[in-house]
Recover the amino acids of this structure.
């Protein structure tokens, strides 16, 4: 006898609908699937680890309360969560704060690989990343994080950043163009 | 060839979407030869953002610290306990591949005879797919499992031999059907050797708990005897497990990771941490495609002088 046990393929919309009806398992599933990307997003902008953890937890607490008060998202769960995350960061940090450099350095930190060559490469890349990211405008940092790192859609990114999609297209162009120029320039210096 | 700035901005956006869908830079720029020299370095530059990841261990540690408070908040806000049987319906598809003995095991078992149905499935919502073997008043048999039709009215004129998909609620001794639909084909599991008396569960889902060599998926407790896999497994990983149930416990026969790349070869194990730490040389490239796409620079691209586009900042407030 063979029994195949597979979960239903549950979409964000399915989960959100279940969560809005008070299904705790759906709320927990949403929290678990979004914790990592939200934490990564917050931590990149908040230098203090404890503050990043607290802010991330607050984002999910807000989500839970919003569901309870019937104020949460009806669609675009991802967009809603990242918008709340962005607002939480701005409340904490202000709109124009660049990424904290000590955080940037930790982006590429390795706690597993002890290979000296890898560590050396890592060190160079961390320096380079710090240089590059430090020179970008906050809006450029943000659009790169949302589009490339979090791989959000143009529409989701536009919603989160309170801009229209054409503005985001232009912004992401300028961000990658600037990043490309800086990378090229710093490579020339190495 | 001159490239219109607006066209380039539009194309770049399409390319970013394709990159996010997992395509390589090479494959993408091939489709835009007139813009390739500009697109390639920009896409490569954008990929630098993907290195902006904290290690999985950092994130896992943060989540473990946060989880008790968040689960408590969910519990407090929505009331009730956090147990599988406390109204937490877990949608699960159970597809019975081989029929014949299950009816004897499950529905007509003699008192005292154990039938291995993990407790997590009881009170769970199930979907069974299969051929109608027998149809009689109020009951339906699919692949040897008898289903109670008394709780629904179906518009479908059911006949023996039909392939159907049935959704229902599994209770201790019956399945109450809530929905029935025609199915296109009966799923077939790849050849997996089992004895006729042995049940092989194949379960795919997120790991919700790890206690020594026991893990939990959708309320099923499963013993994992593959130490290497267990050594890198983390709560939240989506795994596919084939588990033998020839005793009163589920024991893993095969395990594969769905949500994260884990390679196990000849006593060595590697887990993709999401960073670019370097790929051990014993790992075949085919087994680490995600890592290579994320971390490998295209040779010669980073120094490419693209003749930088002079797109002007003319359509955005740019903060």
């Amino acid at each position: 006898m063979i029994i195949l046990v597979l979960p239903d393929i549950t979409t964000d919309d399915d989960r959100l609908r279940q969560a809005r009806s008070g299904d705790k398992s759906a709320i927990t599933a949403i929290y678990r699937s979004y914790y990592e990307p939200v934490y990564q997003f917050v931590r990149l902008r908040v230098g203090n680890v404890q503050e990043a953890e607290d802010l991330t937890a607050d984002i999910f607490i807000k989500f839970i309360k919003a569901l309870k008060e019937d104020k949460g998202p009806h669609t675009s769960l991802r967009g809603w969560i990242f918008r709340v995350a962005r607002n939480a960061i701005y409340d904490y940090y202000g709109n124009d704060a660049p990424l904290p450099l000590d955080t940037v350095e930790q982006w590429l930190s390795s706690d597993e690989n002890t290979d000296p060559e890898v560590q050396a490469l890592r060190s160079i890349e961390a320096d380079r990343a710090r240089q590059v990211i430090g020179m970008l405008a906050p809006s450029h940092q943000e659009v790169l994080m949302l589009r490339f790192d979090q791989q959000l859609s143009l529409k989701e990114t536009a919603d989160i950043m309170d801009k229209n999609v054409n503005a985001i297209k232009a912004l992401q162009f300028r961000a990658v163009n600037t990043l490309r120029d800086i990378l090229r320039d710093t490579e020339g210096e190495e | 060839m001159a490239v219109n700035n607006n066209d380039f901005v539009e194309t770049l956006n399409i390319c970013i979407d394709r990159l996010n869908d997992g395509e390589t830079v090479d494959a993408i720029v091939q489709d835009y030869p007139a813009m390739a020299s500009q697109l390639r370095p920009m896409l490569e530059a954008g990929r630098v953002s993907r290195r902006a990841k904290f290690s999985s261990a950092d994130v896992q540690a943060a989540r473990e610290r946060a989880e008790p408070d968040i689960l408590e908040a969910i519990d407090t806000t929505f009331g009730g306990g956090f147990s599988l049987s406390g109204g937490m319906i877990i949608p699960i598809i159970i597809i019975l591949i081989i029929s014949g003995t299950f009816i004897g095991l499950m529905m007509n078992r003699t008192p005292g005879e154990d039938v291995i149905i993990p407790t997590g499935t009881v009170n769970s919502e199930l979907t069974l797919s299969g051929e109608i073997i027998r149809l009689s008043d109020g009951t339906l048999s699919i692949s040897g499992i008898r289903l109670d039709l008394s709780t629904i009215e179906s518009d479908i004129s059911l006949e023996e031999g039909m392939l159907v998909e049935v959704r229902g609620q599994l209770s201790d001794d019956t399945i109450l059907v809530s929905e029935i639909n025609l199915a296109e084909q009966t799923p077939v599991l790849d050849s997996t050797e089992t004895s006729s008396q042995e049940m092989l569960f194949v379960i795919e889902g997120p790991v919700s708990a790890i206690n020594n060599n026991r893990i939990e998926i959708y309320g099923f407790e499963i013993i994992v005897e593959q130490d290497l896999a267990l050594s890198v497994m983390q709560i939240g990983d989506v795994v596919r497990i084939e588990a033998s149930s020839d005793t009163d416990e589920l024991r893993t026969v095969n395990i594969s990771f769905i949500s994260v790349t884990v390679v196990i070869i000849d006593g060595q194990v590697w887990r993709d941490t999401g960073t670019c730490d370097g790929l051990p040389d014993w790992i075949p490239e085919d087994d680490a495609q995600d890592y290579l796409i994320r971390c490998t620079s295209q040779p010669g691209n980073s120094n490419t002088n693209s003749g930088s586009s002079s797109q002007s900042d003319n359509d955005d407030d740019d903060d």
